[in-house]
Every structure is written in structure tokens, then in C-alpha cells.
Amino acid sequence: MKSRKVTKAVFPVAGMGTRFLPATKSIPKEIMTLVDRPLIQYAIDEARAAGIKEFIFVTSRGKSALEDYFDHAPELENTLKRAGKNDLLEVLKTTNMDSGAIAYVRQNRAMGLGHAVWCARRLIGNEPFAVLLPDDVIAAEKPCLAQMVEAYEETGGNMVATMEVPPSKASAYGVLDIAEDMGAIVKAKGMVEKPKAEEAPSNLAVIGRYILSPKVMTNLNKMKQGAGGEIQLTDAIAEEVGEEGTGVYGYRFSGQRYDCGSKAGFLQATVAFGLSRPDLQDEFSSYLHDLIAQQKAAQ
Ligand code: UTP
Known about the structure:
The chain is an alpha/beta fold. The protein folds into two domains: about 10-260, Spore Coat Polysaccharide Biosynthesis Protein SpsA, Chain A (Alpha-Beta Complex); about 260-299, no CATH class. About 35% of the residues lie in helices and about 25% in strands. The chain is built from eleven helices and 13 strands. The strands form three sheets. Strands 8-11-9-10-12 form a five-stranded mixed β-barrel. Strands 2-3 form a two-stranded antiparallel ribbon. The longest helix is centred in the C-terminal third of the chain and has 18 residues, at about 280-299. It starts with 7 loop residues before the first strand and ends with a helix. About 35% of the residues are buried. Bound molecules: uridine 5'-triphosphate. The site of uridine 5'-triphosphate has 21 residues, from helix 5. It comes from Gemmobacter lanyuensis.
């Protein structure tokens, strides 16, 4: 084993979520629900399943609904207890976090993902850590971060979740330049943020799950002092490729990723998660079926 255990995770949730205005004027994007669970709950569950014990949220103004969500709700719990609604009590329990397991740091200005991660530096210290972007929701038999932790135990260094995208979509992602392709794991020799289709070094795009060495925080530190504007996480990770660096690996996860930061992705996830719920499946699929039939008939 080359790596240290990963027990801390950073959840950057300080973005303005402008693609979901006007909703995000007063509701944090991460509180928006897929069926009946907010996006952040999916990310927390995935982190827990991967052995994360400390949860660090990088928040901003207007995100207090997120903090309230993870608090105990004694009045609600008592009401459910008195009514004998034990199933709902169990559901509520999944939202409770142990005292001290969750920490909030503030990003005062939305200066990019790299800057948001850097805001957690004092809580991370000199340890490897995970980063989960809650707007990337991943449906998988074995949760994505748990798959990555297993692979990371072999590689150490830094690991990013990747998926294959067509060249026309590369400009929406960070893209890996591949040194060695070992199947599920690929070793990177570079990373390019949002390349043009013809300049993309591969078809492997980075999505919102990372396991990072503390060295990446040091890199972000330098960028903080040097650069203006947005601070890119990709650049700080890319510094770790090659002989001198701690190493960067891409991981081709098994599962389906939904970009819930975009309207189309959020709607696709809503349909997919609705259809996968045993309590809704029959009613929902027959509704969709009828809807499509009606649309076809009207054409
Ligand atoms: P996005 O690029 O999706 O930005 O951020 P956004 O502000 O959330 O949404 P749009 O584009 O305006 O609709 C990706 C992740 O990085 C976080 C976001 O909260 C999201 O989880 N982020 C982004 C920060 O925490 N701080 C930033 O300065 C930027």
C-alpha cells in the first residue's frame, strides 16, 4: 500500500448557481432535490460509504439552509415518534451528523473551485483529502468515491474521476493527457482545462470527485499569491504530474454521472432516480409512457 487513509472530504458549495436562477436566489443549489433528497445528501452518503469521517463545507452567504439541513430536528423527531412514524424517523436519521464531524469554512468571494478548496487548508493540514462536487451525482452499484479509494490505495498520489466524452464536449471539462493507460486507472502526464475540441489531449474528462495530496494545497497557496481572477483546481493538480510531482491518476469509474449543475442534467437525473425508486417506479413509468405516446400521436 502506497497511500495514507483518506478520512477528510471537502464539499465546495460556495458557487452562486446562476444556471438555476431564480430558484438559487434564495435556495442553495445543493438543497435542490432529486425525488425527495437534496443533492448534498447524495454526496454525503457517497463520502460516508468511502470511509470519510470529517466533512468540510466551503460555503458562502445565503447557504444557511445547508447548515440547518444537517442539524438535529428534535421537535420534528418527537412529533414523528409520538405518531409512531418509525420509517420517517429512520429517514431523518440519515441526515444527522455526529457532533464535530461537520465543519464550515467561508469563501468570501466566488473566485473559483481551486480557491474554494484552498479555503479548507487549515482543516486539511498535512493529510490526503477527498473533494466532492455535489452537483455531480453518480448512480453506481459501488459508490464512486469508494471505488476511487480502493484504486488510490494502490497508486497513492492524486486521483481524479474521469469519464469518456466526445471531442465536441471536451471544452466543458478538464481533460487528461495520458502517459500510461492501465484500464480502469490511467497515469496522466498533463491536464488541460476546457480545451478546444481539436486541442483536447484525450477523450478522458475529469468530473467532480478527487482524492488529493496535501501538496495540491501548497500549489493552490502559490496561485493565491500570484494569480488574479478564478483559481483553477485543475492547474494545481496538473503541477503534480511527472517525475518531480506526487503523481496524477485518472480513474474510469463504473456508474452513471449526472450533471445536476445544468438544467438538462438535473431533469435527466430526476427521471432516472424517479424510475429507480421501487415506491414510484410503476406510477412514474406508466405516466412517462403515456406522455410519450401522446406526444407521438400529436406529431
Ligand atoms: P460551478 O462551476 O457549477 O459554478 O461550480 P456554480 O456557481 O455552482 O454554478 P453556475 O455555473 O453559476 O450555475 C462547481 C462547484 O464548485 C463550487 C460550486 O458550489 C460547485 O459545487 N464553487 C465554484 C465554489 O465553491 N466556489 C467558487 O468560487 C466556484
